[in-house]
Design goal:
Structural class of chain A: alpha/beta
Strand content of chain B: 5-15%
Strand order of the largest sheet of chain A: 3-2-4-5-7-6-12
Largest sheet of chain A: 7 strands, mixed
Number of helices of chain B: 12
Number of strands of chain B: 7
Helix content of chain A: 25-40%
Radius of gyration of chain A: 19 Å
CATH class of chain B: Alpha Beta
Shape of chain A: globular
Strand content of chain A: 15-25%
Distance between the termini of chain A: 44 Å
Order of helices and strands of chain A: EHEHEHEHHEHEHEEEEHEEHEHEHH
CATH superfamily of chain B: Thiamin diphosphate (ThDP)-binding fold, Pyr/PP domains
Number of domains of chain B: 1
Number of domains of chain A: 2
Oligomer: heterodimer
Chain lengths: 326, 326
């Protein structure tokens, strides 16, 4: 297969182009996604190519966006709705919890094939209303698939699967990953929802990391290798439903686990993954499962302060070393 | 006397639906109070003409989104009465297999999609229905019922503004019974005629007597014609009177006496009946026969529903995800 190098941003943009080309029922709307091409330029060129009926800017109205995407999906479209910053999901949350995810379960036979695209993540000096990772809120709600790809390859293939899937799917990007590069095939491919990906094989410790924390974990793993520690990095890719089979196989091999999640610690997805590993892999564990997360502190602006919030390579390394001592 | 372009057949159907809804509410109230229906039951007793007049202006393939006070709305759209009765009792023969209950049931066969237990939560979904109709190029319209209380929510504002700027074929029908839960309209907003707000969205608005079924029909029909012509949404405010409290069993003795006196004076069924008799369309005997027939229809539906089985555990686990994921 011929491969090419693209950014995470380009990979998502290609997936949108290809799926809109393939299926005329796919429409895309949100704030600034049309003429301007998105504040992160992820939707660049789509309006020009597919016209203003299928790609359009909306009023700043997240509740209406989420509700309208839901209704449009019920009535025959396959909408992709963008909530520009995940910090604003609260405004859309009633629709997501009480309409989008309620309908397919309660109204037998009716499907809601929509994709909610949004992005979270800190490191942009964006202060606390443009940097949060609130995937746990969505993860908590039954009936929605939640995907958090960390590479251009996964982002493109997974988004294509998400658009074709008949369930509501939340597709959560990370703003700091947009310029990162990776290889993808020249031609058509998809990545299945619900399948984890082992990003690095190792035998001493398993790191289960989400989104950008996969990148940070791989950096940590590389440095730890020089110290003679072999780290396996598992990226769930889809966090709901969680591919526990792949995670359990890794735990069986290493017997030690760190779960890494850039999010407020209390009630984070990491807490739930930790609980699931504890329930299903207890006999394979040689020590407690450790979590690397952000603290339960709002995210301050100053670069001097933001660093205290951000989890990353160094905190991951410390956790691995601590785990090996137990 | 009155003039109308409606056929005698249609007028009789509207009269029958008024009684069907009224008799349903009378029985549902009785069954709630004697414990045969569980949970809360929001009755539309007295408000039937809003639903019947509005739905008379719609075709079967048009969609409606109802409220938490949805019984009359759904009956007016033509839902299967037996399926509805069984749903009210939580039986497997219910139109949503007993999963929905009284506040949010739906019937896809007549595009009654559906009730909404979140005040103000449904309007945006109805906008999505209309978005799909416009993009798919059908002639369908959607109609969102919502109350005067809901008209003060942000989601309804977002939905109307979004639909207006996109010219989606949707009718925003404010069923104004002057009560948002237990608080009267004048304590929730300074606006007297809520359709005045339409001007703020750049769309037409009309306020009509919601107990005059033909007045509701005429106003909604104009809005439907405008929507089908591609000119976008309208607001219709139908002022009506809730003959009961917030829900079955809630006392009304503390509520303003003049409100209820006026409501009884303006009983929508009697108002319409007088007109039909004066016009020579039918006789008091024929009216009585329709009242009896609809009462029997409701009783038989509930009798049958009460003998039907409850859903089993298999139903509980169905459609947690409505489609395959991987």
């Amino acid at each position: 297969m011929t491969m090419k190098k693209v950014t995470y941003r380009q990979a998502i943009n290609e997936a949108l182009f290809e799926e809109m080309e393939r299926d005329p029922k796919v429409v895309l709307f949100g704030e600034d996604v049309g003429t301007y091409g998105g504040v992160f330029k992820v939707t660049d060129g789509l309006k020009k190519k597919f016209g203003s009926d299928r790609v359009f800017d909306t009023p700043i109205a997240e509740a209406a966006l989420m509700g309208a995407a839901t209704g449009a999906a019920v009535a025959g479209l396959r909408p992709i709705v963008e909530i520009m910053f995940m910090d604003w999901i609260g405004i859309a949350m009633d629709q997501l919890v009480n309409q989008t995810t309620m309908i397919p379960y309660i109204w037998e036979g009716i499907k809601v094939p929509l994709v909610l695209r949004t992005q979270g993540g800190s490191g942009s000096k964006g202060s606390c209303q443009h940097t949060k990772s609130l995937e746990a809120w969505i993860y908590h709600v039954p009936g929605i698939v939640v995907a958090m790809p960390s590479t251009p390859y996964d982002a493109k293939g997974l988004l294509k699967s998400a658009i074709r899937n008949d369930n509501p799917v939340a597709f959560i990007e990370h703003k700091m990953l947009y310029p990162t590069e990776g290889e993808i095939p020249e031609g058509e491919y998809t990545v299945p929802l619900g399948k984890a990906s082992v990003k690095r094989e190792g035998k001493d410790v398993t790191i289960v990391a989400l989104s950008k924390m996969v990148v940070e974990s791989l950096k940590a793993a590389k440095e730890l290798e020089e110290e003679g520690i072999s780290v396996e990095v598992v990226d769930p890719v889809t966090i709901k439903p969680l591919d526990m089979e792949t995670i359990a196989a890794s735990v069986k091999k290493t017997n030690r686990v760190i779960v890494v999640n850039e999010a407020f610690r209390t009630g984070a997805v990491a807490s739930d993954i930790t609980a699931q590993i504890q329930e299903q892999c207890f006999d394979d564990l040689d020590g407690p499962i450790l979590r690397v997360t952000a603290p339960d502190v709002q995210i301050p602006y100053s670069p001097a302060l933001e660093q205290f919030w951000l989890p990353g390579k160094d905190k991951i390394k410390q956790a691995v070393l601590a785990s090996l001592k137990r | 006397m009155f003039s109308t372009t409606l056929s005698i057949e249609k007028l009789l159907d509207m009269y029958r639906k008024l009684w069907l809804a009224r008799n349903h509410e009378l029985l549902a109230e009785e069954w709630k109070l004697n414990g045969r229906i569980q949970g809360s039951v929001h009755l539309s007793t007295g408000q039937e003409a809003v639903a019947v007049g509005a739905c008379a202006a719609l075709e079967v393939d048009d969609y409606i989104m109802g409220t938490h006070r949805e019984h009359a709305q759904m009956i007016a759209k033509g839902v299967n009465i037996r399926g509805m009765a069984a749903e009210m009792l939580g039986k497997v023969t219910g139109m949503n297999q007993g999963k929905a209950g009284h506040m949010l049931f739906s019937d896809k066969s007549v595009n009654a999609l559906g009730g909404c237990g979140i005040v103000g939560g449904g309007a945006a979904v109805a906008v999505g229905y209309a978005m799909a109709f416009k993009i798919l190029g059908t002639r369908q319209v959607s109609l969102a019922f919502f109350g005067d209380g809901a008209f003060n929510t942000g989601a309804v504002h977002e939905a109307i503004n979004f639909a207006s700027v996109r010219k989606y074929p949707v009718i925003f029908l404010c069923e104004n019974n002057r009560w948002g839960l237990t608080v009267m309209q004048h304590e929730q907003t300074l606006v007297e005629d809520l359709a005045d707000r339409a001007r703020g969205y750049g769309i037409p608005g009309a306020t009509v007597n919601g107990n005059d079924v033909l007045a509701v029909y005429e106003a909604v029909n104009l809005a439907v014609e405008r929507a089908r012509a591609g000119d976008g949404p309208s607001v219709v405010e139908a002022k009506t009177w809730r003959m009961r409290g917030l829900a079955a069993g809630y006392p009304i003795d503390w509520e303003p006496k003049d409100y209820h006196e006026e409501g009884r004076k303006q009983d929508p069924i009697l108002l319409f009946e007088e007109k039909l008799i004066a016009k020579g369309i039918f006789t008091p005997e024929k009216a009585k026969a329709i009242e009896e027939e609809t009462r029997k229809t409701i009783e038989e539906a509930y009798d049958e529903a009460s003998r039907a089985p409850y859903p089993d555990e298999a139903v509980f686990w169905e459609n947690v995800f409505a489609a395959p994921i991987g």
